[in-house]
Task: structure prediction
Amino acid sequence: MKLYYSPGACSLAVHIILNEGGFSFDKEQVDLATKKTASGGDYTAVNANGYVPALELNNGEVLTEAVVILGYLADQVPERKLAPETGSMARYRLQEKLNFITTELHKSYGSMFNPAMPDEWKAQVKQGLGRRLGFIAGALEGKQYLMGDGFTIADAYLLPF
Result:
């Protein structure tokens, strides 16, 4: 497999799970501004959206979107318990957390890096992030990890934010 990543991006979560899952993989850095890979390739030929992560599987297929890649990887190594069993209520609770992270944290944090964003809007985004991080703090209350006592893909995804 090959992970296409950029430092400081949510591709870090996929990198963590690749390591936690014991996967053999290569990685290639992507310059998000130029859409070029470290080897000089056109990254939009890998992921037309031009953002990371992308995971090229051993059969040549490419998966994009962090939450999708994380779920795929967890399902490849069920013995590592990186996600609850498919179809279980615990798996749906995990999906709730992943969707909250991607829609309520990831999108908000991402907008903060837009140099064109007015300071007034940044202040509103920060206020909203404060509430959302309060929710995450409450979800972690009395627990070591988001899903309880075991590290899951949700914890890896939360880390970059």
The mean pLDDT is 93. The CA atoms of residues 80 and 122 lie 39 Å apart.
